[in-house]
């Protein structure tokens, strides 16, 4: 392999050189890599603060070499709000899964967006509670089997999946909202651009931004990693279409 090609895959300095606890094929590692690249490329390590969730990414601070904090389950937007208001020149991001953000943290995310808090939220949506054995989550698809919906999600008893971007798009102060994926080089690049856009939104003091990322959970989807990526592209995006739902530059 040429030196140039080797340098192209160099580990970003913002990413610790350690093994992660994530399952094979999990998308969190991809998202961590994207964040580390952006932090390094934009020289943000000395002025960025990340908020770790309660969930699969609870040890975010063990992998990203940045200032970080943690909050009670679902409360990261509230703590991120406090940090941003106290240190307005920092870039503050909340990193959350679907259980953390769309279940126990529903009130926190809705009201942070409604107030237009100048923070960026990275929302990793894999449709299940991955840390606690794969239970039904707010974003579980209709018909999808989980440990607590063994016959598949029934909208008559468990309701329909919660569409976070579409929900927050009804709030005027949520100024940048996008849904991306990490299933291919193309979607990974789109995800990186969306996170860069979210951080730019914060830099320009425009208000609240959120990037929802469709991510695979091969373990609790009972698929291999390749099947899980294909499942997102062919099935999950039918319920959660990719795209930009709000952008402050569009008026």
Tell me the number of strands: 9
**Order of strands in the sheet with the most strands?**
2-1-3-4-8-7-9
Helix content: 25-40%
Radius of gyration, CA atoms, in whole angstroms: 17 Å
The CATH H-level homologous superfamily:
Thiamin diphosphate (ThDP)-binding fold, Pyr/PP domains
How far apart the termini lie comes to 47 Å
Number of domains: 1
Task: Characterize the largest beta sheet: strand count, sense, and whether it forms a barrel.
Answer: 7 strands, mixed
Query: Number of helical segments?
Result: 10
Tell me the strand percentage band. 15-25%
Report mean pLDDT, rounded to a whole number.
94
Order of helices and strands: HHEEHEHHEEEHHEHEHHE
> Per the principal axes of the C-alpha atoms, what is the gross shape?
globular
Which structural class best describes the helix and strand composition?
Answer: alpha/beta
């Amino acid at each position: 392999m040429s030196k140039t090609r080797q340098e192209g895959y160099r580990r970003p300095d913002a990413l610790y050189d350690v093994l992660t606890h994530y399952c094979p094929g999990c998308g969190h590692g991809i998202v961590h890599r994207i964040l580390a690249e952006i932090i390094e490329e934009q020289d943000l390590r000395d002025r960025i603060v990340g908020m770790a969730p309660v969930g699969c990414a609870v040890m975010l601070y063990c992998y990203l070499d940045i200032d970080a904090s943690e909050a009670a389950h679902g409360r990261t937007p509230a703590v991120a709000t406090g940090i941003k208001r106290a240190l307005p020149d920092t870039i503050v991001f909340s990193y959350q899964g679907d259980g953390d953000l769309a279940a126990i943290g529903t009130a926190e995310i809705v009201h942070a967006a409604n107030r237009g808090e100048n923070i960026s939220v990275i929302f990793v949506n894999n449709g299940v509670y991955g840390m606690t054995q794969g239970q039904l989550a707010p974003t579980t698809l209709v018909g999808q089997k989980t440990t607590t919906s063994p016959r598949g999600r029934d909208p008559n008893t468990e309701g329909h999946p919660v569409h976070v971007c579409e929900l927050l798009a009804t709030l005027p102060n949520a100024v940048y909202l996008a849904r991306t994926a990490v299933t291919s080089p193309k979607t990974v690049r789109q995800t990186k651009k969306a996170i860069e856009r979210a951080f730019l939104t914060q830099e320009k003091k425009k208000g609240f931004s959120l990037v929802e990322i469709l991510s695979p959970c091969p373990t609790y989807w009972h698929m291999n990693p390749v099947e899980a990526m294909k499942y997102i592209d062919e099935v999950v995006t039918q319920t959660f279409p990719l795209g930009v739902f709000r952008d402050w530059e569009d008026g």
